Amino acid sequence: MLTKDTAICIRTTDYSETSQIVTLFTRTTGKISTIAKGSKRPKSAFDGPLEVFSHGQIVFFDSSREKLATLAEFQQAPAFSCKADNLFALNCCLFGAELVNSLTHDYDPHPELFDSFLQFLHDTNEGQKAMTLLILFQLTLLREIGLIPILNACANCKTSHGPRVTSHEFYFSSSANGLICGDCEASFPDKIKLSKNAADCLANAKLLKGAEEKTLNEIEKILIHHFTEILHRQPRMAKYVLSSGDRG
């Protein structure tokens, strides 16, 4: 059956001298693995090898979800250029693609997540603050897949984040799936202490746009720790996001 959809390429692997295996995140079908036959030929129907972040309208043939779908057409929109202009922006986009690939299931559509990912790539390409955009996208991803931590209250005692918390210390615990107040932290050995600024930004994402680089880096370390716990391994691109000196 031929299916039309809108897609973003999130992973490519060489299959042969002329073809590729391409993982696509589509808006209405979800994540799919396809074979792009002849894509590496100079005069292929895809105008050359497909690259990560290629996006546009696709047509694919899927006879069985247990096998690779066949990519028949890919009408690509203009490519994102952040990979050529800013290494840190590229690393953030690659990290986002890796997380989408790792945390979504085949044929499980998330149209709002698709729109958010496409907007994240567009805004990063336009030169907006990549770390802020990455954090906001990661929070959207966690919400859309049903794994968003509790960030506006203590995940243990449910006390709202704010002046009612008797302790001014804040922590994050993956095992508790959220923020932990100073009154409850002793019960969670995996806790990581947060600055007040980081805790405030996690509780109110609108504050992220005005946050200092130090606070953004602190939050990103927390999120990487949380993704590592969810996946039982550290995402491959995590070290490049944290080690880059250009926060563009």
Task: Describe the 3D structure.
By secondary structure, this protein is α+β, with helices and mostly antiparallel strands. It has 2 domains: 75 residues, Beta Barrel (OB fold (Dihydrolipoamide Acetyltransferase, E2P)), CATH 2.40.50.140; 140 residues, Up-down Bundle (de novo design (two linked rop proteins)), CATH 1.20.1440. Helices cover 34% and strands 21% of the residues. It has 7 helices and 8 strands; from the N terminus they run βββββααααβββααα. Strands 1-2-3-5-4 form a 5-stranded mixed barrel. The protein has a 3-stranded antiparallel beta sheet with strand order 7-6-8.
So what's the CATH class of the largest domain? Mainly Alpha
Shape, principal axes of CA atoms? elongated
Span from first to last CA?
44 Å
Order of helices and strands: EEEEEHHHHEEEHHH
> What does the radius of gyration come to?
20 Å
**Count of alpha and pi helical runs:** 7
Regions with little confidence, pLDDT below 50 for 5+ residues: none
